[in-house]
Structure formats: C-alpha cells, structure tokens
Amino acid sequence: MIGKSTKCVFGPDFKSADSSQTILKTSSFKYVPVEDLKVVGRDSKICKTSVSVTERDVRQGKLSTAQHELVIQAAENMSRTGKKEVIQKDQTIFL
Predict the structure, then answer these.
(1) Is 94 helix (H, G, I), strand (E, B) or coil?
(2) CA-CA distance, 70 to 93, in Å (whole number)?
(3) How far is CA 59 from CA 38, 45, 68, 82, in A?
(4) Distance, CA of 89 to CA of 95 (rounded, Å)
(5) pLDDT tens for residues 37-86?
C-alpha cells in the first residue's frame, strides 16, 4: 500500500497468522487504556535505548531527561489522536 490507511473497529478484533512483520519508516504509537496482555514463547527486542516511565514518577516529578522527553512525546501523540485530554501547565504534564 502506498499512502495512508485507517482502520476503525468497534467491538472485538481478531487477527490470526502464521507470522507477522511490520516495518515502519519513522515511529509507532500504541494506546491501550485498560490492559495490554501479551503471552509469548520468547519476547525479543533490539533497541539503541530503552526508556519507560510510570504515572507515579510523572506525578512525583522524578523524571530523567529521557523520561521527560518520552512523556512529552506521549502527550503530543495523544493530543493528535484525541484519545486523552492533555493539559500542560507550568512545565508539568498531566495525562
């Protein structure tokens, strides 16, 4: 496919395949508001850097520079998708 593709599913969505591969040119964003459950035989990942942050760390303001950048990126993505209201006030981001 060349161009844009949009998929909206209201209700359950099921995918079954022998294998699946995704190659992206820039970035990927995944938003799961309740729970993300994954059951795998082996989970492998190769990355240059890995950054994670908890909502508790955000509320307490205990963020490294990399974590702060991750929160900013998540807020920008959620603003674009309209999934969650994002408010920035005094350099504190509330998700």
Answers:
(1) strand
(2) 11
(3) 27, 29, 12, 22
(4) 12
(5) 888 898 888 888 777 788 788 888 878 888 888 777 777 777 766 555 54
Beta carbons within 8 Å of 53's beta carbon, 6+ residues apart:
63, 67, 70, 71
Residue indicated by tokens 């963020």: 63
Residue 21 in tokens: 């591969």
Model-level pTM?
0.47
SS3 of 89, please?
Answer: strand
How confident is the model at residue 92, as a pLDDT?
Answer: 46
Tell me the C-alpha distance between 92 and 95, whole Å: 10
Tell me if 95 sits within 8 A of 75, measured CB to CB: yes
pLDDT for 46 equals 84
Is 37 exposed, middle or buried, given 0-12, 13-18 or 19+ CB atoms closer than 10 A? Answer: exposed
Question: Residue 87: pLDDT above 50?
Answer: no
DSSP character at residue 87? E
